[in-house]
Amino acid sequence: MKQMFLPEIERGAKPSAWADLIEAAQKRGAEYPQIWHLFAYLPQATQHLARFTQEILRGPAPLTPGLRELIAAYTSYRNDCPF
Prior knowledge:
Layout: H1 7-10, H2 17-28, H3 35-41, H4 43-58, H5 65-78
């Protein structure tokens, strides 16, 4: 996987569920969202962002979670950002 723009953040994970997820994905050789590194670097500061994202993508809404994921993936594609 391509290294992040800020490699010191990638290497600076604090003990957290995010760090555990990154480690598990790396051991499997699986790709994972690079934003997880930011969440692992500052777990307390990014809790609100993780909750917000889950609520937007999974909470009650007129659009299904799958359709919301598709919109997010398409937006990332248009921004030339892997989703």
